[in-house]
Write a structure and sequence with these properties.
heterodimer; A: alpha/beta; Rossmann fold; 2 domains; seven-stranded parallel β-sheet; 8 helices; 28% helix; B: alpha/beta; nine-stranded mixed β-sheet; two-stranded antiparallel ribbon; 30% strand; globular
Chain lengths: 328, 263
């Protein structure tokens, strides 16, 4: 299967062990399948797969649902699940194979790709079919500071898609076919001894709904107080860029490429120039506010609202205005 | 006794990347390189296993002459042997071709109990080489490992997954990918740096690994990179015009109320 052989590969196939992500993949897959004029199939793998999951996949866009059941598939294992997926690919070789980009999905996909001697594009944030019918994906590289556009030249053309890139499609009354496949599964070699819920180490800045962050525009450590006062009114956490933590040791941790990647509803950047390393850490913020005295600062290009001005004047004014408005 | 092979990659220093404002492309040429952070922790984990259980650690990297610096650093951290896989034909290898080259080198080394590498390198973020090498060598894989030990000839690991942690065990040989949290890599002493500088770095090219031209480099790859750019962020980019800081602050608060991000 190393050679590109256009005629023997057909359709788009999606798989995720995460039921909700599978529906999102069906949204991505439906668009690609329609463009290719080819069917969309979903794969369900497990010890037993309930009938409602088959129906659910069809209602959310699958033309065909492959079901692989085997007692050895009751728990996820990269090797046994690889065997199951290879069985489907062999039965109905797809042009495009999409796998949900959970951690489990991302340990499964490359194993499948290696067995099929094909390529796989990790964590695609968008996927499309170009004029030549090739799968083109866009994904973050260099620690999240750049976006690469890649194309897969062998079939099946594989990609993983992280959760929440595509929206779950609206269910509809549709017709679809269910195909059960027998599969031989090896005894899993990796044995799970114990599963435990994640240790939650206190409150993490990743979970903060509002963050007030300072950069090199802050002249001395004591001035962080201005940010703390603003943060208190907002119920926010205070963060900073790398130099303030790594070089000056004013705070322990920083936000950015090599530090924490955050996704608050509101991010207020005070005296932050906006290097790509810092921006990589705040990409997923809903609203970004920038306060900087340099109107040329790159942070204004990635902010929703900017105030060009001295943070030593603007931040206290903002604290005061918020106190009045929020009645605190 | 445990024989470990660690796979490392030297990548450009990500903190040094800047974007060309005109083309919006990252400037990568001429940047200093260093061992990818997570790979360095794989080296540390391998050396710790050797120190506890005896045995030896070989470090393996696909690269060019500059990669020797990274291999020397791994030797100084406590690796016993170093292999540089270097050939002009290897250029342009994607994860498919890279894994083939690494697997061929591991087969040539022959004896091993464990293969260790980082969960991903921070430049490509593809997170594929570990599982691909495991598949090519027919090994069980233990991924996203944040603590690792050996017990009665088996490898025992704690895995860091999204919603849960998993303790798993597997027979050896096996392949393990580690996460950043597994350890803090040591800083080698001057003595060990000097000792490392005298060690030989074995160099293997395509022919030494018995690979054909079609299996490596661009010819042996399946994914082609069309373009790399600074990401576009869809933002409003609204500059709030005002006479005084107080007026600017009030207008901003109004906007934030409209956005519904104030509580």
């Amino acid at each position: 299967m190393t050679e590109m052989n256009g005629s023997s590969f057909r359709g788009v196939m999606v798989y995720s062990e995460n039921p909700s992500l599978l529906l999102e993949l069906l949204a991505a897959g439906r668009g690609l399948a329609d463009k290719l004029g080819a069917p969309l199939s979903a794969v369900l793998i497990g010890g037993e797969v309930g009938g409602e999951r088959r129906e659910e996949a069809i209602r959310h866009g699958a033309d065909r649902v492959y079901v692989l059941e085997n007692p050895r598939l009751a728990d996820f294992n990269a090797e046994t699940y690889k065997a199951a997926l290879l069985r489907v690919v062999e039965a109905e070789p797809p042009e495009v194979l999409l796998i949900g980009g959970t951690k489990r999905g991302k340990e499964l996909a490359p194993r499948v790709a290696a067995a099929l001697e094909t390529g796989c594009m990790t964590d695609c944030i968008s996927l499309e079919v170009d004029e030549e019918g090739r799968l083109v994906g866009r994904r973050l590289t260099y620690g999240g500071s750049t976006v690469a556009e890649e194309v897969c030249l062998r079939k099946p053309q594989m990609a993983t898609i992280p959760p929440r890139v595509y929206e779950r499609p609206e269910p509809a009354e549709r017709r679809g076919e269910v195909v059960a496949l027998e599969v031989e599964v090896p005894e899993p070699r990796v044995r799970v001894v114990e599963r435990k819920e994640k240790r939650r180490a206190g409150f993490r800045i990743e979970d903060a709904p509002v963050i007030v962050a300072g950069g090199r525009g802050i002249k001395k450590r004591e001035d962080l107080k201005l940010l703390e006062e603003l943060a208190e009114v907002l119920g926010a956490r205070v963060g900073c860029t790398r130099p303030l933590a790594a070089d000056y040791h004013w705070l322990e941790e920083w936000i950015g490429l090599s530090g924490h990647k955050v996704k608050p509803d509101l991010y207020i950047a005070c005296g932050i120039s906006g290097t790509i390393q810092h921006v990589a850490g705040i990409r997923d913020a809903k609203v970004i506010v920038a306060i900087n005295s340099d109107e040329e600062a790159p942070i204004f290009n990635i902010a929703d609202y900017g105030i060009v001005g001295d943070l030593y004047k603007v931040v206290p004014a903002l604290t005061k205005a918020l106190k009045e408005k929020l009645g605190k | 006794m445990v024989n470990v092979i660690v796979l490392i990659k030297d990548i450009v220093d990500l903190t040094e990347i800047k974007v060309d404002p005109r083309t919006q492309r990252p400037i990568l040429a001429g940047l200093p390189r260093k061992i990818s952070d997570v790979d360095k922790r794989a080296v540390e984990a391998a050396v710790q296993l050797k120190e506890k259980h005896g045995g030896k650690v070989a470090v393996l990297s696909l690269g060019d002459d500059k990669t020797r610096t990274a291999l020397r650093e791994a030797l100084a951290m406590g690796c016993d042997e170093a292999y540089l896989l270097k050939d002009p034909a290897f250029e342009g290898s994607d994860t498919l071709a890279t894994s083939r080259i690494l697997a061929a080198a591991i087969r040539k080394i022959g004896e091993y109990d464990l293969i260790l590498c980082g969960e991903m390198t921070l430049d490509s973020l593809s997170a594929q080489v570990g599982p691909r090498v495991a598949e090519l060598l027919g090994l069980p894989q233990l991924t996203y490992v944040r603590s690792l030990d050996l017990k009665e000839g088996r490898v025992v690991a704690e895995r860091d997954l999204e919603e849960e942690d998993e303790v798993v065990e597997a027979p050896m040989p096996a392949l393990v990918t580690v996460v950043r949290e597994i350890n803090e890599p040591r800083i080698p002493s001057l003595m060990s740096i000097m000792r490392a500088s005298r060690k030989k770095i074995e160099e293997w090219d395509r022919e030494a690994l018995g690979l054909s031209e079609g299996e490596v480099g661009s010819a042996g790859s399946a994914v082609e990179i069309l373009e790399v750019r600074a990401p576009k962020m869809e933002r409003k980019k609204m500059i709030i015009e005002a006479e005084t800081p107080e007026e600017a602050a009030e207008r901003l608060v109004e906007k934030l109320m409209e956005e519904g991000v104030l509580r």
